Amino acid sequence: MRFKSAVWVCAVAALFAFALPALAQDGARSEVSVDFTGNFQSQATGLGVTDTPTYSGGFLANYRYHFNRWSAIEVNYDYTRFTQFYAPSGDSLTQSKAQEFTLAYVNTLGVRPGARLKPFVEVGTGALIFSPIPNGSTVAGLTDGRPAFLYGAGLDYRLMPRISVRLGYRGLLYKAPDFSVPSQTTNALTNMAEPYVGVAFRF
Q1: Residue 179: CB partners within 8 Å, gap ≥ 6?
Q2: I need a labelling partner for 167 at 20 to 30 A (CA). Which of 68, 78, 186, 195 fits?
């Protein structure tokens, strides 16, 4: 499938990231975070078909490794589920689970480690995997994988030396899912907006 190469790149890079602590500078830190997300996929139109998705909530988990005050790398997993409505093909819809596997470079803007406010920006790549739910769909579709480009920004607010509240925005650019159903194919790019809030633990 088309997304396999992106998944392999993400997996190899993730293994490389977990091996880096042995090579990194003294004082570098790891973080894990758990976040609640809003998931808002934009409407996509192409080939005479319009894909209008519902909005949903989900959760995001990540591991971040800091090399120094400026740079970090992170791996992410996100899960949500929503419905894609397709027009003008009658009442065609596909309910699906959506999973995200991404790898990102994070720039922490050189903020000192003890600062209470820590902004960051990030960019990366990975894959989205859409798995149809047959009982909630009008057309029998197949699991659909999409390479994705990730961008985002956020802010950590330190509550305790190793615990912070994290607030951010992530965007994912990818081709709208069609589940291998011709009447649902747009071949159009779409954007998933993911505002999120959660807690980060530093160790």
Answers
A1: 94, 96, 130, 132, 139, 141, 142, 143, 144
A2: 68
- Global pTM reads 0.83
3-state secondary structure of 8: helix
Its domain, for residue 88, covers 4-20+30-36+49-202
CB 24 within 8 Å of CB 167: no
Quote the distance between the C-alpha of residue 201 and its chain's center: 19
Is 25 inside any structural domain?
no
Query: Per-residue confidence of the chain (203 residues) as pLDDT tens digits?
Result: 444 545 544 554 544 444 444 344 445 489 999 999 999 999 999 999 999 999 999 999 999 999 999 999 999 999 999 999 999 866 799 999 999 999 999 999 999 878 999 999 999 999 999 999 988 898 889 999 999 999 999 999 999 989 999 999 999 999 999 999 999 999 999 999 999 999 999 99
Beta carbons of 102 and 123 less than 8 angstroms apart: no
Domain membership flag for residue 44: no
